[in-house]
Write a sequence for this structure.
């Protein structure tokens, strides 16, 4: 075996290992099963690339149900090692019969293995695991025989098990009967065995006449196996005698020689076969893994784009109805308001109402002898505070519905095969949005309660300053008179309003008005609460979108990853 | 009946978006409707179906008693349909075969009158790489009332024949099948008779599982090589007697029933009732949510608010007044002068009410679309909530996603239009009701032009005439005096303004009464009632869910009718 060849194959193996590692990192989402199957194939290819003509080849016996695979194995071994039955689809997993522990390479089939001891004989295969039976015989000294389940029965899981064994096999024994040699299930395996240069032996079991054998030989000739090693085993009750060199003894010799055939295959042919195998695996990677994942990526990208352009709805919450009452109450105590122009304007606005009520008031005064108490300012309509929590919840649900439309839309719109349950799992409970409002409103209420019986900031400050002066305590009560007093003083001082007077009055009004505005803590707090609700809501909405986003990202690898994988596959393919 | 059921199944598949039952596929190998409906007691076909080299031809020969078809044990084997038919049927059989298998058939005639209507057909295999074989067999299966399903001890568990059998059995009664296990002699020789029997049991078990039969079907253990052993003599006896016409008719009925049964079972698996129940619950939820969140607030707040809105009544009264005043000479001049003055006064109204005066549409918008209570936002919120709690809402409202702002706004526009339409209709109706005034044309003329003549001219002249000629002269002089002129003009001005005001007051009162009547009565014309419009709008929002429920309910009802029919006929 030339060092160069080994080098070439090692490089190929390294590349496939690298690709496999890359594939294992892919986020494949709903396609995980396909990816897993491919990785199984890749492992089988790596197994073949790593073989260096070992002493014993893995010989896999393939065939339809009832063709007598297990029986043939037993007859080759001369002992009941693999369980047989006249019932169909009896064997359900691979059974490897080796001469000793080293007969089955580690990790072969990529399945868990169980050893069938002498007490478990005859061993019966189980799906999803490899049963190993240690049995010494002239045959197992040279090869390891692997019995497989059927390829054509009514248990599809058997087909998968047999297919796996084929992928890992180094030499093959095809078993057919006169009834089954024309069935379609074996055809792809004939072709692949040829392509991978696997030494193959063909056995016509239950043979009754020479012409069937000849017809089979002809059929194999038409299917790339012109000089197939064809053997015949007569049916128990048939008088047919296979011609010399095609009977059981010859078959046993040939099977024993398979290891040598594998080991002594021409380097060139072996290399070509391995390249073909690697090429197939890489091709499958392209067709069955990369292409569908790329499609999925495209879908995901389209959805991500729509998701990105999804505008976060505004919470549309204004908490001022909650603070209105306190606002009024504090205002009435605020010195700056009382001495400012706003108060005068408010008074002026009340004049028409007072006038319109005047007859009534006068009548009442005459009738009862006292003026009616001023009606308490009735709350303007629509001031029952709206249910902020449910408003936020609604807005949040609208966002979620639009995300649903993106993900689960029918036809071209949605993500193919998106699981409604999985999507539902992505959702943040809408009650979280309600909690934002509840918490903020709660905080605001607490603040309101705290402020309720306090004097406004400006008044408190003024009172503190004036406390020392005599009568300073009453300044709040009389402060409303300040603008009028000022106007009167100015008027009496100048008799007519001069420019200076107007300037003084104007700047006085402006200053008090601005100062009142700026010191209005309720308005500031309201603004702050609104802002915080808006901020927290958009944070929540972003978190929701983010969650969907990362889930979507997990549904398909990035285009860059796929391109890199494809490049790696191409490089590896060029190498072959 | 089957035709109905077929149509029903297609409609159900369309409704649920699932796949059609295999029975309805275009190339399904199931008994053709034409074969089943043949009332005339024509021939019937008995055919051998089976895998490659299971011994169909050998069995046919063994059944007939001589070699009508060549036995092969290798190679392509039987490649054509070989019919064994009575002389009288040969022509009919030939034309049938020519239709289904042009150039790939052969008819062997016999003279046995006892089998005049029975046609035995040997067919190619169904599982080899010769793809033309299975195709031919599948075509012939459409005519095969009595399939003999032949498998060998080796092949009975193969997958491909089982898949085909499942398709065939969906369209034919299991009673019409004859299941044969050929080559039992091989097992018998090697493993003993008990093993052969066990194998037949195993085959029957698999068949029962595959066809979902309550009990295992009879499996005829035969061996073509030993015509005198096992069940072959019995089978031959059975086939040597042709089935009576009534039996064939019965078999056809059973096949039809089986097709119906298959379809019915498929329909059952569609879970229509479950869907209907879900949709009904969903509809109820949608109804409740729409009523509670959308319709109720509109009825309780928006509509009364609109009716209380001065702009609503003012606009209506204005229009009526304009109509009415046209019939009043002179007063219309007063109206033309005072109207603009009134609109100056109206500038003092709040902005929303000023806008509401501009037209019905603007009025509706002012109430439906006001910020904070915007109906579009509520519609979107309601349906988003429904969408989240009922995933099916997404499908039902796929064409009208009301949780999307655009569609919600459209819904709001619809409501606006409905309300505006009702308001317009109210104005129109009010105008019509107003036409027949209390005052006739003569009265109106007397009150206006009459007053113009009477007060300044007729009355003074008359009173002067009573007093004498000298007074007449004095009157003529004083009439042309400034004092007299001013007095009359002032009085007449006051008089007409009073008339105008009275008219306006009456109109306003009339409008108030009308509005009250419309608001109060439920039995009013829906076109005029704002509340009825709101309710109609609400039910329009429910339309997609209702339509979905109705479609499902109709399907379920039809399914039920079919079930009852089947129950009766069974």
């Amino acid at each position: 075996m030339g060092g160069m060849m080994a080098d070439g194959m090692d490089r190929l193996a390294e590349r496939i290992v690298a690709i496999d590692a890359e594939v294992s990192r892919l986020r494949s989402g709903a396609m995980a099963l396909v990816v897993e199957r491919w990785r199984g194939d890749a492992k089988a290819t790596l197994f073949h690339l790593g073989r260096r003509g070992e002493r014993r080849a893995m010989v896999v016996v393939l065939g339809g149900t009832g063709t007598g695979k297990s029986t043939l194995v037993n007859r080759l071994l001369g002992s009941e090692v693999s369980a047989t039955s006249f019932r169909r689809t009896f064997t359900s997993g691979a059974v490897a019969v080796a001469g000793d522990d080293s007969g089955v390479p580690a990790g072969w089939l990529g399945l868990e293995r169980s050893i069938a001891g002498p007490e478990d004989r005859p061993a019966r295969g189980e799906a999803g695991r490899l049963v190993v039976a240690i049995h010494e015989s002239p045959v197992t000294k040279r090869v390891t025989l692997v019995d497989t389940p059927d390829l054509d029965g009514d248990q599809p899981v058997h087909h998968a098990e047999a297919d796996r064994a084929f992928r890992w096999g180094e030499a093959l024994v095809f078993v057919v009967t006169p009834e089954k040699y024309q069935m379609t299930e074996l055809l792809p395996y004939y072709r692949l065995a040829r392509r991978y240069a696997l030494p193959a032996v063909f056995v016509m079991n239950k043979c009754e006449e020479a012409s069937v054998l000849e017809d089979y030989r002809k059929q194999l000739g038409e299917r790339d196996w012109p000089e197939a090693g064809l053997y015949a085993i007569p049916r128990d009750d048939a008088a047919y005698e296979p011609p010399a060199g095609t009977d059981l003894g010859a078959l046993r010799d040939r099977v024993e020689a398979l290891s040598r055939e594998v080991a002594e295959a021409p380097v060139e042919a072996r290399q070509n076969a391995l390249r073909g195998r690697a090429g197939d695996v890489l091709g499958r990677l392209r067709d069955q893994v990369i292409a569908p994942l790329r499609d999925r990526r495209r879908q995901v990208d389209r959805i991500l784009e729509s998701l990105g352009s999804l505008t976060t709805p505004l919470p549309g919450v204004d908490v001022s109805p909650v603070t209105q009452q306190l606002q009024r109450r504090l205002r009435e105590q605020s010195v700056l308001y009382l001495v400012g122009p706003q108060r005068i304007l408010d008074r002026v606005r009340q004049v028409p109402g007072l006038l319109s009520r005047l007859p009534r008031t006068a009548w009442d005064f005459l009738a009862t002898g006292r003026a009616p108490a001023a009606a308490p300012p009735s709350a303007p309509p629509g001031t029952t505070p709206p249910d902020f929590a449910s408003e936020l919840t609604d807005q949040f649900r609208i966002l979620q519905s639009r995300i649903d439309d993106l993900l689960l839309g029918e036809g071209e719109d949605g993500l193919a095969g998106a699981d409604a349950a999985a999507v539902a799992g992505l959702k943040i409970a809408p009650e979280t949005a309600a909690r934002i409002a509840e918490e903020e409103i709660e905080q605001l209420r607490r603040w309101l309660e705290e402020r309720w019986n306090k004097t406004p900031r400006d008044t408190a400050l003024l009172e503190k300053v004036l406390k020392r002066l005599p009568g300073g305590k009453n300044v709040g009560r009389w402060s409303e008179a300040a603008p009028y007093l000022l106007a009167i003083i100015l008027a009496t001082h100048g008799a007519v309003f001069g420019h200076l007077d107007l300037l003084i009055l104007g700047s006085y009004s402006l200053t008090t008005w601005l100062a009142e505005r700026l010191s209005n803590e309720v308005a500031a707090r309201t603004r702050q609460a609104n802002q915080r609700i808006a901020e927290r809501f958009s944070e929540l909405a972003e978190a929701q979108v983010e969650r969907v986003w990362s889930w979507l990202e997990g549904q398909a690898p990035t285009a860059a990853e796929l391109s890199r994988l494809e490049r790696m596959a191409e490089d590896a393919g060029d190498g072959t | 009946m089957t035709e109905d059921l077929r149509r029903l199944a297609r409609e159900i598949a369309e409704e649920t978006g699932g796949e059609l039952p295999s029975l309805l596929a275009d190339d399904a190998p199931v008994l053709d409707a034409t074969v089943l409906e043949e009332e005339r007691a024509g021939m019937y076909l008995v055919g051998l179906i089976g895998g490659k080299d299971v011994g169909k031809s050998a069995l046919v020969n063994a059944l007939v008693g001589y070699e009508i078809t060549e036995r092969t044990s290798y190679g392509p084997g039987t490649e054509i349909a070989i019919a064994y038919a009575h002389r009288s049927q040969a022509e009919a059989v030939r034309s049938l075969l020519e239709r289904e298998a042009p150039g790939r058939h052969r008819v062997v005639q016999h003279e046995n009158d006892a089998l005049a209507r029975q046609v035995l057909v040997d067919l190619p295999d169904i599982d080899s790489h010769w793809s033309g074989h299975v195709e031919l067999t599948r075509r012939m299966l459409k005519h095969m009332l009595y399939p003999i399903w032949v498998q060998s001890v080796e092949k009975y568990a193969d997958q491909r024949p089982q898949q085909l059998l499942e398709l065939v059995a969906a369209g034919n009664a299991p009673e019409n099948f004859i299941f044969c296990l050929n080559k039992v002699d091989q097992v018998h020789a090697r493993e003993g008779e008990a093993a052969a029997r066990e194998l037949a049991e195993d085959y029957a078990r698999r068949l029962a599982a595959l066809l979902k039969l309550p009990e295992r079907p009879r499996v005829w253990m035969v061996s073509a090589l030993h015509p005198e052993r096992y069940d072959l003599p019995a089978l031959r006896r059975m086939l040597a007697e042709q089935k009576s016409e009534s039996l064939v008719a019965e078999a056809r009925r059973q096949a039809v029933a089986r097709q119906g049964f298959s379809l019915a079972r498929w329909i059952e698996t569609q879970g229509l009732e479950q869907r209907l129940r879900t949709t009904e619950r969903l509809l109820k939820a949608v109804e409740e949510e729409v009523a509670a969140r959308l319709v109720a607030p509109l009825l309780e707040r928006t509509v009364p608010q609109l009716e209380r809105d001065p702009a609503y009544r003012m606009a209506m009264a204005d229009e009526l007044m304009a109509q009415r005043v046209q019939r009043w000479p002179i007063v219309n001049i007063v109206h033309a002068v005072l109207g603009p003055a009134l609109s100056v006064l109206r500038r003092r109204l709040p902005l929303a009410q000023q806008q509401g005066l501009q037209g019905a549409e603007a009025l509706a918008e002012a109430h439906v679309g006001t910020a904070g209570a915007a109906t579009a936002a509520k519609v979107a919120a309601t349906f988003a909530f429904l969408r989240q709690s009922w995933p099916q809402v997404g499908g039902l409202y796929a064409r009208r996603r009301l949780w999307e702002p655009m569609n919600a706004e459209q819904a709001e526009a619809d409501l606006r239009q409905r309300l505006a339409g009702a308001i317009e209709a109210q104005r129109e109706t009010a105008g019509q009701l107003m036409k027949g005034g209390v005052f006739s044309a003569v009265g109106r003329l007397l009150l206006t032009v009459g007053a113009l003549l009477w007060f300044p001219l007729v009355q003074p002249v008359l009173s002067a005439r009573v007093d004498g000629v000298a007074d007449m002269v004095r009157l003529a002089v004083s009439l042309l005096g400034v004092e007299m002129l001013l007095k009359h003009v002032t009085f007449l001005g006051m008089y007409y303004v009073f008339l105008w005001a009275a008219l306006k007051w009456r109109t306003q009162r009339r409008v108030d009464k009308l509005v009250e009547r419309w608001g109060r009565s439920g039995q009013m014309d829906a076109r005029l009632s704002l509340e009825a419009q709101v309710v109609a709008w609400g039910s329009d929002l429910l339309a997609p869910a209702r339509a979905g429920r109705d479609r499902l309910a109709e399907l379920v009802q039809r399914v039920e009718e079919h079930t009852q029919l089947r129950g009766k006929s069974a």
